[in-house]
Structures are given as C-alpha cells and as structure tokens.
C-alpha cells in the first residue's frame, strides 16, 4: 500500500520516556517528615477535641481556639509536605518557618522539665530545615 508506514513492534507510536529528574532524597525526606508532623499534630488535635467535649469546666472560647489552631497546623503541614513532594518552590519558606517555630517550643519544654520531648523537637526542626536548604533540594526546587 502506497503511503503507509509499517507498524513497529510496539505500535504505531514509539514509546516516549519523559526524562524527569527523580526527587532528591533530601526533598523526599523533608516532605515525609512534614507529613509525619502533620499526623502527630492531627492526633493531638483529636485529643483536644475529645478534651473539649468531655471537660466539666472550661474556658470554651480559648479551648476552641487552641483546637482550631492545632487542626490548622496539621492541615498546613500536610499541604506543605504534599506541595514540596510536587516540587512547588513556594512551599519551602512556610515549611522552614514552621520548622523554626519548633525551636522556641522545644526550648520552653526544656525549661519546663520536658527535655525528653523538647530536645527531639528542636532536633527535628533543625533537621528538616537543613533538608529544606540543602543543595539537592535547592536544585530540585529551581533555586540554583
């Protein structure tokens, strides 16, 4: 038949491989840790909801505000982890800010006698911040 192209073994159209760079390990772990933090804060928010519903005496507006803050923080951490996994450069700065907030929280926990929890929180905040400003993460997000 004139004008026809012989069909190859894979079909009419040859397979095309899109060469997308894999997500670097540093960015992948930063996103995983942010999502892990989101789960932890969501569990705390769930406990706060339970405490709000079962408390006998409470300052209801303050209790609801703290609970809403925890729910919002969990949602923000989850969204930032997902955005970073999709290489959205705009998610890096808010994620760093949330990680740096762990430093004063950890410090006050240490001052209050909860060093067993404050020190790991501070280490987590510094560790995730380090992952977010590392060279492979910068390259993946287009900062270099």
Outline of the structure:
The protein is 70% helix and 0% strand.
List strands and helices in order, with pairings.
Layout: H1 25-54, H2 60-85, H3 92-111, H4 115-132, H5 135-141
Helix pairs in contact: 1-2, 1-4, 2-3, 3-4
Report on the structure:
The longest helix is centred in the N-terminal third of the chain and has 30 residues, at 25-54. Helix 1 (25-54) packs antiparallel against helix 2 (60-85), helix 1 (25-54) runs antiparallel to helix 4 and helix 2 packs across helix 3. The protein has one domain (25-138). Helix content is 70%, strand content 0%. It is mainly alpha-helical.
* Helicity range: over 70%
The domain tally reads 1
Q: Uncertain spans, ≥5 residues at pLDDT below 50?
A: none
Proportion in β-strands:
under 5%
Order of helices and strands: HHHHH
- Class from helix and strand fractions: mainly alpha
Give the overall shape: globular
Largest sheet properties = none
